[in-house]
Amino acid sequence: MRKITLSMAVLLVLAAGFFVVTWIQNRPTTLSTPSAPLRVYHIGVLSRGHGSYEVAIRGFQDQMRELGYIEGQNVTYDVRYVSTKEELDQTAQDFVNAGVDIIGTYSTPATQAAYQATQKMLNPIPIVFGSLSDPIAAGVVKSIEQPDTNVTGVTSLASDLTPKRIELLTRIVPGIKKIAMPRSAVELNDIAVNRSAALAEQTAKKLGIELVFFPVRTKEENASNAASITAQKAQGMIVGGDSLVWGGLGDYVNQAIKEKIPFSAFDTDQVKRGALVGFGPDYTVMGQQVAVMSDKIIKGKKPGNIPVETPRKLLLTINLDTARAIGITLDPELLKEAEVIIGK
User: Fold this and answer.
1) Bridge-partner residues for 45, per DSSP?
2) What is the number of other CB atoms lying within 10 angstroms of the CB of residue 177?
């Protein structure tokens, strides 16, 4: 009798175990452990002015979408377009207070404001700039290959390409002797502007051209500053890496057309807005580069270990409608070199 009882007990235990395993394997899905909530990344974007930066930011957001970041699902953007140093500083601090995951910046002053706002943090928020002329001179990285700070990004070459804009004017107006350059006033201490002006002076001197500066201190001053640039004072006009002047670009375009002065600007967006010619980066592509770098940071890479990049694509753009409006006949060889031609 004892053996029978033990055998039955063993069978009962085995049977119970079988049923437990079977239940676990086939239990209803409604009893499954719920999945973890989707992580939402918050990205603050600080831009000094609109124009070309809007193009870059759209390129950034489009590329982020391609990388799997869907706005409202796993990423949110807080995009701020401001102008003055006080506004830049306050917005940068707003992003720090909000605890965003990444700060994207456009312009040298915007990047410097974000950098300063994050330096008191124990773990500084990563910053990825999408347009900055010289990150080392700006004091936000230690080297191009190894930034070694909480900052990386894509240089705009805005200052370095300034001599090219003068060269374009010499091809458009052979024998040109005087060129106007609206610029942020020296006392504003914009590093990109100061470098642009220095390079322009060197190039103009070498070519025997007089360079006339027209300083501006606020965005609102652009209109009156532009009105002071006349055909009597200049045979052509250029801009450097100057986000303050870019903020009033329409005023300078209108004045250049009114005075029939060829205006050599920075990029395709500025030429679309009426400048005669421009040579600079494709801001859509720059925005895409920023998105790829931001994705690397989200996935765990430190910005200090991500090398600073240069624009992957430069464009020569010409506006034929503007050429007709100011009575300029362009060299066919120059037209052949243009990647983008606006108008017919």
Assistant:
1) 79, 104
2) 13
Q: What is residue 141's predicted lDDT score, i.e. its pLDDT?
A: 96
How many other CB atoms sit within 10 Å of the CB of residue 334?
14
Q: Which two tokens stand for residue 87?
A: 């506004």
The model's pTM? 0.78
**Are residues 221 and 212 in contact, defined by beta-carbon separation less than 8 angstroms?**
no
Give me the helices (H) in 276-328, please.
283-298, 320-325
Which residues, at least 6 apart from 286, have a Cβ–Cβ distance to it below 8 Å?
A: 56, 59, 130, 131, 154, 156, 311, 312
Note whether 94 and 100 are within 8 A (CB).
Answer: no
342: left (phi over 0), alpha (psi -120 to 50) or beta: beta
Residues 6+ apart with CB under 8 A from 140: 111, 112, 115, 127, 129, 132, 147, 149, 151
What are the C-alpha distances in Å from 153 to residues 191, 305, 308? 17, 11, 5
* Tally of residues, the chain: 344
pLDDT score, position 18: 46
The answer to whether 56 and 283 have CB atoms below 8 angstroms apart is yes
- In terms of Cα–Cα distance, which of 214, 276, 270 is closest to 246? 270
162-280+314-342 has CATH 3.40.50.970 classification: no
Question: Residue 151: what are its φ and ψ, rounded to 5°?
Answer: -125, 140
**CA distances to 229, 245, 251, 254 from 226, in Å:** 6, 10, 6, 9
Q: How would CATH label the architecture of 41-156+282-305?
A: 3-Layer(aba) Sandwich (3.40)
Q: What is the pLDDT of residues 226-246, one digit of tens each?
A: 999 999 999 999 998 888 898
Cα 244 to chain center, whole Å? 15
Q: Which regions of the chain carry the CATH code 3.40.50.2300?
A: 41-156+282-305, 162-280+314-342
- Who contacts 57 (Cβ-Cβ below 8 Å, separation ≥6)? 45, 47, 79, 104, 106, 130, 287
- At 279-316, the pLDDT tens digits run 999 999 999 999 999 999 999 999 999 999 999 999 99
